[in-house]
Specification:
The structure holds three protein chains of three kinds. By secondary structure, chain A is α/β, with parallel strands linked by helices. Helix content of chain A is 52%, strand content 16%. The chains are: A alpha/beta, B alpha/beta, C mainly alpha.
Chain lengths: 342, 252, 257
C-alpha cells in the first residue's frame, strides 16, 4: 500500500475513533422520567421491595415527573456500587461498606438514610459445627469460608473479627467471594466449610440441613451498621426534592415492615420465589433491626472506612487518598429535614 | 525354466452402483527372472490394478499370483513398488527415506545408513542425502523412490508409470539410468506405462492389454539388442505393430 | 534488498499510535480513571503490583499447564483412533459435535460441584477449552494421510495399524497436531481467566482481576492485569511456535511454497 494512502487511512481512523468516544461521553441533562433503584435479595432490604410491591415508589414520585421506577437486583454490594459508579443507579439499598469502598475510588454519592443493622450469620457445615462449639473462632483456621466480595459489610466484619482474634484473613483462612445463592449451593455441595451471609440465606441453609448457624454478626460486632440508602451525587444536586421524597417513602416502608413482619416476609417470599415459612422463621431468629436514621450508622461507617483504608493502604497512600471522614460519607441533611417536617 | 512370477487365470471384479464391473478377465502371464517386462494398454484397462495385485495391495477375485513358488497375499518388501509421484515421506530426509524399509525390518542405525548411502550413489544423488523431498526436482524424487525400493533387495521391482510426471528430457535420462540399474542389479522388473515409445525402448517383452474388461491381447518380444536407438527402423516397426494392436482393439 | 528491513519494524507503528491515542483520550477527553485509566497509570500499576503479579502469573500458568496437559493426553489418543479408524469416527463424532459447542464457561458450575473450588477445577475448564481444537485438528491430520504414503509404507514392510500409525500417520499428522495445540492454547488461556474468576483458587490473574480489583473498583489495576494477560498469551504462543512449529514445519513449508 502506498505510504500516502496508509497515512490518510490512519488519520481518518484516529479522527473517527475520537469522535465516537467524545460523542459517547456527551452529558445530557434532560428532565428525569425514570429512576433506577438498586437492591439485594436480602431480608435486610424488604423496605425497598415492600414500597415497590405496594406501588408507593410510583405514587410518591409521580408528582416529580417520574414515570417509571426500575428496581434492579444485585447479588451483593460491590457489583451494585460498580453499577452506580457507571451511572446506572440513582438510589441504592446497600450495605454501608460497599459505597465507602467505592467512594475511595471516586464514587460521587452519600449515605442519606439507614436501613438496618446486624443481621448476618456465620453458618458452619454440620460436621464441623461441634469443632466450632468447642474451639470457637480458632476452628476457622484453614477452612474455606464463602462470603460477599471484598468491600462488602460481610467481608469487612468477618475480616475484622478474624484479625481481632489473631487470624490472618489472607493466609490463615480461604475466603471465597460469591453471591448468596452460589454460597448456599457451595455449602450444600461441601465445596466450602462455612458461609457468612446476611439473612435470610443462613436460615434457608439451616432449613435445608446444609449448615448450622453458630454466630450472629450482632454478637461479633454489636450494633454494627449493615444496610443503608445511598443517593448519587447527581440526584442530590439536581433533584434534592426527589431525594427527600425517597427518604419519606423509605421511612413509611420501614415503619410498615416493623409493624407487619409477617406481611413483609410474604412480600419477600413472593419477590424472590422463596418458601414463606422459611422466610418467616428467618425474620424470627435473625438479630437484625430495621431502622431509618442514618446517624445510627455513622460510628460503624467510620470504622469501616478505616478498615477498608487499612486493607488498601499502599494503593491509597500512593494516590494521596486519605481516610474518609463523616462529611465524605454521610449526608444527613435530607433526613433531618424530613424528620423536622413530621 | 523356473519362472519368477506366474499369474494363473487372474480375474478382478468390483461392485459398484451400476452393478458388477469386471476390471480384469482371465489374465495368464509368466515372467522370467531378470526379465524387463512392460505392460501397456488404454486408460482403464486395469494394468495398474494388475500391478497392485502383484504388489499385494489388492487381491484377485479368482485366480492365483505366484512369486518364487509362493502365493502372493498381502504387501511385502520382497515386491518393491515405485509409484508415479508423491510417494516420498516428506518429513524424512532423502537418506532416511531410503532407510525406511530397513528400519522397519529392524536393522541397526549404522548398517542401514551404509546401505542407504550405497543406493543413493547408485542413483547418482550422493550430495543430497540430507536434503528434504521438497528441495528436489521431480526427476530426483523418482530416483530416490527407486533407490528406496531397491534398498530392501526385493525379488521383483514393480513400477507404475514412474516417469509419467516428469518432463520428456528428464524422462529419457531416467530411462537410461533405470536400464543401468537393471543391468547392475539384475532385478526382474514389471513396468506399467502409457507410452508405447517407453515400452519399446526399455522392455525385453511387452504385454498389450485390451480396454475394460482387461485381457491380454498380445505378448511381443522386442528382440532389439541394447543399447537401443529410439528412432531405429526396427524400433519404429515394432511401435507401429503395437499401436495397431492398441488401436484395433479399441474399435471393437 | 530494501523490502525486508522496512517490514521488520512495521508492527511498532500501529502499536505506538494506539498507545498514544489511549493516553490522550483517557487523560484529556474522558478524564475519568474509572471509565478508562490512562496508559501511564496502568504501567505504573504494573510496577506497584509487581510482587503480587509474579505469584498470580505463576498460579495462572499452573492452571494453564494442568489443563493443557490433560487436554493433550486425552485428545491425542482419541484423535488417532478417530482419524485412523473410520468406525470409531462414526461412532464417536456425534457425541463430540454435541458437546463441542457448549462454551467452557458453562461447565464452571459442574466443575465446582464435581471437583471443588481448587486448582484442578480451574484446570478442568481450561481442559474443556483446549480439548476440542486439539482433537479436531489432530484427527483431521490422521484422516488426511495420503493413500500413496500408506501404500508405500506397506510395500516397504510397514504393515499393520500400529506400525503404520507410528511410522507414517503420526509423522504426517504432526503439523496438524501442532496447529491444534496452538489453537487449543489460545482458547485455553482465555479460559484461565474465566475459571479463576469464579474463585477456584486464591490467586491467579483472573482471580485477582475479578475477585479483588473489580469488586473494589480499582480499574487501573483491572486494566493492568488485562494487559498482562494479553502479553502472556502472546509470549506463550510465540514460544510454542519457536520451539515446536519452526522445527516441525520445515518440511511442510516446502509443500506450501
Amino acid at each position: 500500500m502506498e505510504k500516502r494512502t496508509m497515512v490518510s487511512l490512519i488519520v481518518i481512523g484516529v479522527i473517527a475513533v475520537t469522535v465516537m468516544i467524545v460523542g459517547c461521553i456527551e452529558d445530557e441533562t434532560t428532565e428525569m422520567t425514570t429512576i433506577n433503584i438498586g437492591y439485594q435479595p436480602s431480608t435486610h432490604q424488604i423496605a425497598a421491595m415492600l414500597a415497590s410491591e405496594k406501588g408507593w415508589w410510583e405514587e410518591d414520585l409521580a408528582k416529580f415527573g417520574i414515570e417509571k421506577v426500575v428496581m434492579k437486583e444485585f447479588p451483593s454490594g460491590p457489583p451494585e456500587m460498580h453499577a452506580m459508579l457507571a451511572g446506572d443507579l440513582d438510589v441504592a439499598y446497600v450495605g454501608t461498606a460497599p459505597p465507602i469502598a467505592a467512594m475511595y475510588e471516586g464514587l460521587d454519592a452519600k449515605i442519606v438514610a439507614g436501613a438496618q443493622t446486624q443481621g448476618s450469620a456465620l453458618v458452619i457445615s454440620p460436621e464441623l459445627a461441634d469443632e466450632y462449639e468447642s474451639v470457637g473462632v480458632q476452628s476457622l483456621k484453614g477452612k474455606k469460608i464463602a462470603t460477599f466480595p471484598p468491600g462488602s459489610i460481610q467481608h469487612t466484619v468477618l475480616s475484622k473479627w478474624l484479625l481481632d482474634n489473631g487470624i490472618d484473613p489472607e493466609t490463615d483462612v480461604d475466603i471465597k467471594a460469591m453471591g448468596p445463592s452460589d454460597a448456599a449451593t457451595a455449602i450444600g455441595a461441601k465445596t466450602v466449610d462455612a458461609v457468612f451471609l446476611p439473612s435470610p440465606t443462613p436460615t434457608i441453609i439451616e432449613e435445608e440441613g446444609n449448615g448450622v448457624i453458630v454466630a450472629w454478626s450482632g454478637s461479633i460486632s454489636p450494633n454494627h451498621a449493615c444496610c443503608c440508602v445511598v443517593a448519587s451525587g447527581t440526584m442530590m444536586q439536581e433533584h434534592p426534592d426527589i431525594v427527600k421524597q425517597i427518604i419519606k417513602t423509605h421511612i413509611r416502608a420501614t415503619e410498615y415492615e416493623i409493624a407487619h413482619p409477617e406481611e413483609a416476609a410474604e412480600i419477600y417470599a413472593k419477590w424472590l420465589d422463596a418458601d414463606v415459612s422459611t422466610i418467616k422463621q428467618s425474620i424470627n431468629v435473625t438479630d437484625m433491626h430495621w431502622i431509618h436514621d442514618p446517624s445510627i450508622e455513622v460510628e460503624s461507617g467510620l470504622e469501616y472506612a478505616k478498615v477498608i483504608y487499612e486493607l488498601n493502604r499502599e494503593r491509597y497512600e500512593e494516590k494521596g487518598i486519605e481516610v474518609l471522614e463523616e462529611e465524605d460519607i454521610f449526608d444527613t441533611s435530607f433526613y433531618d429535614e424530613v424528620m423536622e417536617e413530621r | 525354466m523356473n519362472h519368477k512370477l506366474k499369474l494363473h487365470s487372474v480375474t478382478k471384479a468390483f461392485q459398484s452402483e451400476e452393478g458388477g464391473i469386471k476390471a480384469l478377465e482371465d489374465i495368464n502371464l509368466e515372467v522370467k527372472p531378470n526379465e524387463f517386462l512392460c505392460i501397456i494398454g488404454p486408460s482403464g484397462c486395469g494394468k495398474t490394478t494388475l500391478l497392485r495385485m502383484i504388489a499385494g495391495l489388492d487381491y484377485p477375485s479368482s485366480g492365483e499370483i505366484i512369486l518364487d513358488g509362493d502365493r502372493v497375499s498381502g504387501p511385502s518388501p520382497d515386491r518393491g513398488m515405485v509409484f508415479q509421484e508423491f510417494s516420498l515421506f516428506p518429513w524424512r530426509t532423502v537418506l532416511k527415506n531410503i532407510e525406511f524399509g530397513l528400519q522397519i525390518r529392524g536393522m541397526e542405525d549404522k548398517e542401514r545408513r551404509e546401505i542407504a548411502k550405497r543406493y543413493l550413489e547408485f542413483v547418482g544423488l550422493q550430495d543430497f542425502g540430507n536434503s528434504y523431498p521438497y528441495e528436489l526436482s521431480g526427476g530426483m524424487k523418482q530416483r530416490v523412490a527407486i533407490a528406496r525400493a531397491l534398498a530392501t533387495e526385493p525379488s521383483v521391482l514393480l513400477m507404475d508409470e514412474p516417469f509419467g510426471s516428469v518432463d520428456a528430457q528428464t524422462r529419457n535420462v531416467l530411462q537410461e539410468e533405470l536400464l543401468e540399474i537393471w543391468k547392475r542389479t539384475k532385478k526382474t522388473i514389471l513396468f506399467v506405462t502409457h507410452s508405447v515409445d517407453e515400452a519399446v525402448y526399455l522392455a525385453d517383452r511387452v504385454v498389450v492389454m485390451s480396454a475394460r474388461p482387461g485381457r491380454i491381447i498380445a505378448c511381443m518380444d522386442i528382440g532389439i539388442p541394447r543399447p537401443r536407438k529410439r528412432t531405429s527402423v526396427e524400433a519404429n516397426a515394432i511401435r507401429e505393430q503395437l499401436l495397431m494392436l492398441l488401436g484395433s482393439k479399441r474399435q471393437e | 534488498m530494501r523490502r525486508p528491513t522496512k517490514e521488520e519494524g512495521l508492527w511498532l507503528v500501529p502499536l505506538i499510535i494506539v498507545i498514544l491515542l489511549w493516553e490522550i483520550i483517557a487523560g484529556y477527553v474522558i478524564k475519568d480513571a474509572l471509565i478508562l485509566p490512562r496508559f501511564s497509570a496502568v504501567i505504573f500499576s504494573i510496577y506497584m503490583l509487581r510482587e503480587l503479579l509474579i505469584l498470580d502469573i505463576l498460579v495462572s500458568i499452573l492452571h494453564f499447564g494442568i489443563g493443557m496437559t490433560l487436554a493433550f493426553s486425552v485428545a491425542l489418543p482419541l484423535a488417532i483412533a478417530m482419524g485412523w479408524f473410520r468406525n470409531v469416527f462414526r461412532a464417536v463424532d456425534p457425541i463430540i459435535e454435541i458437546v463441542r459447542p457448549i462454551p467452557p464457561l458453562a461447565w464452571i458450575p459442574l466443575a465446582i460441584v464435581w471437583i471443588g473450588l481448587n486448582h484442578y477445577a480451574a484446570g478442568f475448564i481450561i481442559f474443556i477449552g483446549a480439548f476440542f481444537p486439539i482433537l479436531i485438528n489432530s484427527y483431521t491430520g490422521f484422516r488426511d494421510v495420503p493413500r500413496v504414503l500408506v501404500e508405500t509404507g506397506n510395500v516397504l514392510g510397514c504393515i499393520g495399524n500400529i506400525k503404520l500409525i507410528r511410522y507414517v500417520a503420526l509423522p504426517y499428522a504432526l503439523p496438524s497436531i501442532a496447529t491444534g495445540t496452538r489453537v487449543g492454547m489460545g482458547v485455553g488461556w482465555m479460559c484461565v481467566v474465566a475459571a479463576e474468576m469464579f474463585g477456584v483458587g486464591n490467586s491467579g490473574l483472573g482471580y485477582r482481576l475479578f475477585q479483588k480489583f473489580y469488586f473494589l473498583h480499582q480499574m487501573d489495576y483491572v486494566v493492568a492485569y488485562m494487559l498482562i494477560l494479553g502479553v502472556l498469551a502472546l509470549c506463550l504462543d510465540r514460544l510454542f511456535r519457536h520451539l515446536v512449529e519452526d522445527k516441525l514445519f520445515r518440511w511442510k513449508k516446502g509443500i506450501v511454497k
